[in-house]
Write a structure and sequence with these properties.
Length: about 725
């Protein structure tokens, strides 16, 4: 590819954009700086939409979108449309790469297949959750333990495979009202595994039922000796008989004393526990609440005892589970239909992932080398799939601490729940997926266009430079072409200094049309001081715009000396201070002398040196504000406007306050506070305008490590403030 021609109309806020990007002389990377709100996100969204095989849209205004993107292999050849699959948009950060809920799917597939895998898996697991909830109601077993109990009782390893096998097994109607946890809980299982219980309990139940039949005030399944004993004990505790109350059992004389009632009931039970073995069983049954409930269950379910005698307990567990499962037959049928229909696709994706495992090891190794400052290490380990049960490679994080001898492995899904990673670390994990996607595309042996949308945004400088190195490596790959978008001017300058690239600066006019500065214009913007050094002695704009720059230089060299105070008088409205003239009296000739002390070989030419600097500054600012070309990104114009705005604002506030002013440091803000205090009522509109001045100009006109980025981000429209 030697040229990419792009024509966009009404695409996500871009009214019109027409540009050709050339990839020649080994420059296969284009870097576009776009201030906030100009076109960066809209441009990336447009290409992302096209990469999905869809047309861009204009959602805000509802206009019809048009686009044409052509690739030229030779300068003179004809262009052909770009294929959607050859476009890859690298977004700043996409949270969708994180695993969610119970879905711990393999990360070792490309993004689209991973999303498909996770969606299918989540749908299956949601249907499984519905089944588990139903089984909790019929079995009495807590949700969290149901799957584990079933698999243990049937000796299986995968819940879905178990359901497939059990789909045709019939229920055991005799026990449809028996809950699993009524028979199989720690107390009952301990009772039933006693070697003497099963053989002795049969005789016990026979005698027990005989008592219930012979004694009129007992009835099987309704009121038994245990309940009667509890009633008698409660009446005694509550002193029921002490106030003359009495109890009359069916077909018996009234009873007026608690001891008489207790003894009468004990005599009725005596026939049950005449021998030691039956007494032992009786005591075991009366020991805990759950065993008492089991005694009642034996009363209500005559066939239960025979089942416990005839089968091993393990077999009876299966009988009860099958009874519960049959009650959820419709839910199981729907789940299995969906599972069978989806399993084939899940297996296909996992097979593709297995083929890519080698590439993933390479990517993980590259990630470790590029981002060594992370508080964790990335590893690939085999883990069972939540749906298919088979082992699949997963990304895990290994955390280590000097105070902890053993490193800890934590799954991504667990980390999401714990929320232990910083935003920067989560973004780094997102980059891991980007690295793999890029590697896969490099191996396709087809030309690839990467649209890189501020991928380094919000990273610290160490990781930001690691990303720049990665982008530089990509720029050297055969068949890889990059358009890097950023609203960070420092990143823009750094990219262009490190990567063999072509810089563009996006501009947007009032109607939404996008144009670009390029070639010499962008070189001047990236390195303005080369031009300034060459023209500072003859260009009035540069003479004036260099004032804050020169003030910073002398401050760095000599501190807040007289030269620094002199230049400060040109940035703030000041009265004379010693040998430093008042702001309105400083001439170009005096400015020249100060520059000669700070900079080398400065001699102003073609100007009247007696002219006042402030007069020239305000005249040039007025010319800039009325020339009507608000889309130009000319640094000196913006600095001059910002200087003029602040000086005019200070002059206005000083006149209105009408007091002697002698502020040192942060003068504009102190004047504003004093102005607001004096005119908080009556000058509301003026206060709003002055507030904008404070927001826009204080630090913007000073040299900083970002090379005037804040003021570059502002449009001329904002600074003119009509």
């Amino acid at each position: 590819m030697q040229k990419l021609e792009i024509n966009l109309e009404n695409c996500y806020g871009i009214k019109h954009l027409s540009e050709g990007f050339e990839f020649i002389d080994q420059k296969k990377t284009v870097v576009i700086y776009a201030a906030n709100g100009v076109m960066k996100t809209s441009f990336a969204r447009t290409f992302n939409r096209i990469s999905e095989g869809k047309d861009p849209e204009e959602k805000i205004w509802g206009k019809s979108s048009k686009y044409e993107i052509n690739v030229y292999q030779t300068p003179d050849g004809g262009g052909v449309g770009i294929d959607a699959e050859n476009i890859y948009v690298i977004e700043p950060y996409v949270k969708g790469y994180k695993t969610k809920d119970e879905v711990a799917s393999t990360l070792l597939v490309d993004a689209k297949k991973k999303e498909e895998y996770d969606t299918i898996s989540k749908d299956i697991l949601d249907k499984k959750k519905a089944l588990i909830s139903q089984l909790q109601g019929t079995s009495g077993v807590p949700k969290s333990k149901i799957e584990g109990r079933i698999l243990a009782d049937f000796g299986k390893s995968n819940f879905f495979d178990f359901l497939v096998e059990e789909a045709t097994v019939q229920k055991h109607e005799l026990f449809e009202d028996v809950k699993y946890n009524e028979v199989f809980n720690p107390d009952i299982e301990a009772f039933l595994t006693n070697p003497d219980v099963i053989s002795g309990i049969n005789e016990y139940i026979k005698r027990y039922n005989k008592v219930l039949e012979d004694i009129p005030y007992y009835e099987k399944g309704v009121f038994n000796p245990t309940k009667a004993s509890n009633v008698a004990q409660t009446l005694k505790t509550e002193k029921f008989f002490d106030v003359g109350n009495s109890v009359q059992l069916k077909d018996q004389d009234p009873i007026f004393e608690s001891e008489v009632l207790i003894n009468k009931l004990a005599d009725a039970e005596a026939s049950i526990i005449n021998d030691g073995e039956l007494k032992k069983i009786r005591e075991l049954l009366k020991n805990k609440k759950s065993t008492k409930e089991f005694e009642e269950l034996l009363e209500k379910t005559p066939g239960l005892l025979k089942e416990l005698e005839a089968t091993q307990l393990g077999n009876f567990k299966k009988v009860l589970w099958r009874t519960h499962l049959d009650k959820s037959r419709e839910t199981i049928t729907a789940l299995l239909e969906f599972y069978k229909a989806s399993k084939k696709r899940l297996l296909e994706i996992e097979e593709e992932a297995a083929k890519q495992e080698g590439a993933w090891h390479e990517v993980v190794h590259e990630f470790r080398n590029r981002f060594p400052a992370m508080p964790f290490e990335l590893h690939i380990e085999d883990q069972p799939s939540a749906v298919l049960g088979k082992n699949s490679p997963h990304i895990v994080l290994k955390f280590a601490s000097e105070s902890e001898p053993d490193p800890k492995f934590i799954e991504r899904s667990e980390l999401d729940a714990m929320r232990v990673l910083s935003q920067g670390e989560e973004r780094a994990l997102y980059l891991l997926n980007i690295l793999f996607e890029v590697k896969s595309r490099k191996q396709s042996h087809q030309e690839q266009l990467f649209i890189v949308d501020d991928i380094a945004d919000s990273f610290d400088y160490k990781n930001k430079y690691a990303i720049i190195e990665y982008l530089e490596d990509n720029s050297k790959e055969m068949g890889i072409y990059q358009i890097i978008l950023t609203h960070n001017f420092d990143f823009f300058r750094t990219i262009n200094s490190r990567i063999l690239s072509t810089p563009f600066v996006a501009q947007r006019d009032k109607s939404g049309v996008i144009t670009f500065l390029k070639n010499d214009s962008t070189k001047t913007l990236i390195d303005p001081f080369t031009q300034w050094r060459a023209t500072i002695n003859m260009e009035l704009k540069i003479m004036i715009a260099a004032i804050p720059f020169a003030r910073n230089i002398t401050q760095y060299k000599d501190g807040n000396d007289e030269k620094y105070l002199f230049l400060t008088h040109l940035l703030h409205h000041k009265e004379q201070a010693g040998s430093v003239p008042k702001t309105t009296e400083i001439s170009l000739g005096e400015l020249e002398k100060v520059y000669q002390d700070i900079l080398k070989n400065i001699e102003f030419k073609g100007v009247t040196k007696t002219d006042k600097v402030i007069t020239i500054l305000l005249r040039i600012a007025a010319e800039i504000s009325t020339k009507g070309n608000s889309i130009e990104l000319i640094l000196e114009d913006k600095i001059i406007l910002a200087m003029a705005i602040r000086l005019m604002a200070e002059n206005y506030m000083i006149k209105e306050i009408a007091e002697t002013i002698d502020f040192k440091g942060t003068q504009t803000r102190r004047l504003f506070n004093k102005f607001c205090k004096k005119f908080q009522a009556g000058k509301e509109n003026e206060i709003k305008i002055l507030e904008r001045v404070n927001i826009m100009t204080p630090e913007s006109i000073h040299l900083n490590s970002f090379m005037y980025e804040p003021i570059l981000d502002m449009s001329i429209e904002e600074l003119v403030m009509k």
